[in-house]
Amino acid sequence: MQDMATISDLKTSMRGAVIDSADPGYDQARALYNGMIDKRPRAIARCADVADVIAAVNFARTAGLPLAIRGGGHNGPGLGSVNDGLVIDLSDMKGIRVDPAARTARVGAGCTQGDVDHATHAFGLAVPAGIISTTGIAGLTLSGGHGYLSRKYGLTIDNLIEADVVLADGSFVTASKEKNADLLWALRGGGGNFGVVTSFLFRLHPVSMVFAGPVAFDQKHARTIMQRYREFLPKAPEDLGIFLGLKKILSSAPFPQEYWGKRICLLMCCFNGSEEDGKKALAPLLDSLPEPWFNWMGVMPYPAVQSMFDGLYPKGMQWYWRGDFVKTLSDDAIDAHLAQAANTPSELSLMHLYPIDGAIHRVGKGETAWSCRDATWSMVIAGIDPDAKKAGDVTQWTKAYWEAVHPYDLGGAYPNFMMDDEGDARIKETFGENYGRLQAVKKKYDPTNLFRVNQNIRPAN
Questions:
Q1: Are 431 and 457 in contact (CB under 8 A)?
Q2: Helices then strands (H, E): number in the chain?
Q3: CB 172 within 8 Å of CB 150
Q4: Beta pairing, strands 196-203 & 160-166
Q5: Cα–Cα distance between 327 and 333 in angstroms, integer?
Q6: Could you report the per-residue pLDDT of 107-118, keeping only the tens digit for each?
Q7: Residues forming CATH 3.40.462.20 domain(s) in the chain
Q8: Antiparallel, parallel or unpaired: β 67-70 and 86-89
Q9: Where in the chain is the domain with CATH 3.30.465.10?
Q10: When you count CB atoms within 10 A of the terminal residue's CB, does the N or C end of the chain come out lower?
């Protein structure tokens, strides 16, 4: 066991702060996004720059400490921390440089999605990413990254040009098509298994004002809505991002009080274009459906739709989630969904189906580590509640829901929608044909599996 003098040595080797259990800010620094998880690391190294990251990696390796990497700190299963080990916290590494002529952005690993949206929006550009602006861009990217723009512009990893990485031996490399191409391939979907990414270079796309917002229906119409949605999606313009949710309306503003606590089927839409064109794109779907309880679509800046749900999911709530990739949405599968959604244990608990089609399908399975290019949706079931006493209820509901619908789904899941208790078989299913190649890259760049606090890919034998 390392004594405090050794931790003190780490402190003297870094520009950023090193926080341990004796520091008054320790409990705040170690707190996780998911309040269901409580971990007590030996120390948290809040890195100010790449030199700090190198010092922290070298310290953890030499001391034999388990090592966790935290970017935005949004990880559901709490893999941004580790008991009795070292946390490399990148949250202060927030630099962003946009090149509007080249349509690229160099992004520090501590940035959130909101940081990136703010910087790129000034130039009428955006990186395809997720749907919550507080999400860390690093964790989102390394596991794939899907959201409103994915049907037109692909996953976040499909727009990753290069990455700067600190490896397990403390060396610094750049991964690109020209240099360490095998590492870039693995980073594009393989998670934090291969090193500490300190910055990303992204390709940007024209996105400025969008026609976006939620359309909410009484859940009694959900079967019809889900059937129409599955038929509409393959023919929908790729400028339209639209996910479907089964959930409740929160008993608070801005929602009309007459709907508080009621179950809904939600269509969350974002059209990258004018209101007129957006309405035309949605008409074949909305005109075939019952009257919604409310339709709050309107013209807004892209960062506004990206941050629309931030206030609903603050840090510290109880979370348990499960995911699957979904190929087809049969009537039997829909019935299974509706039976489980009828028992939602809290107003925040939900099921979402995010489209995996369009541009995503135009990338081959072997072109990136993220191999499930033939799915139609990425599904997440999330039990969520602010009350720690409800942790068991939301966990039980999520597991039961997943077990009911999983027989209709594909084998793997989006890694960011997986918990830490799902086992190696699920990880292998998620990467499919690419798993063996990922093991080989792991052996080359991290042969001792230093970076194992993640959805772990073990080195090839």
A1: yes
A2: 14, 19
A3: no
A4: antiparallel
A5: 11
A6: 999 999 999 999
A7: 209-417
A8: parallel
A9: 96-206
A10: C
Q: Kindly report, residue by residue over 304-337, the tens digit of the pLDDT.
A: 999 999 988 999 999 999 999 999 999 999 999 9
Beta bridge pairs of residue 211: 271, 299
The reported pTM is: 0.96
**Amino acid, single-letter form, for residue 113:** Q
Structure-token match 């929006």, residue found: 121
C-alpha closest to that of 210 among 272, 137, 263: 272
Q: What is the dotted CATH code of the domain comprising 209-417?
A: 3.40.462.20
Q: Which residues pair with 70 in a beta bridge?
A: 89
Count CB neighbours of 290 within 10 A. Answer: 12
CA dist., res. 108 & res. 214, Å (int):
31
Domain 96-206, CATH among 2.60.40.10, 3.40.50.300, 3.30.465.10, 3.10.20.600: 3.30.465.10
Output the six-digit token pair for 183: 């590492």
Residue 407 and residue 411: Cα distance in Å, rounded?
9
Residue 267 forms beta bridges with which residues? 215, 244
Measured in whole angstroms, the distance separating CA 246 from the mean position of its chain's CA atoms is: 19
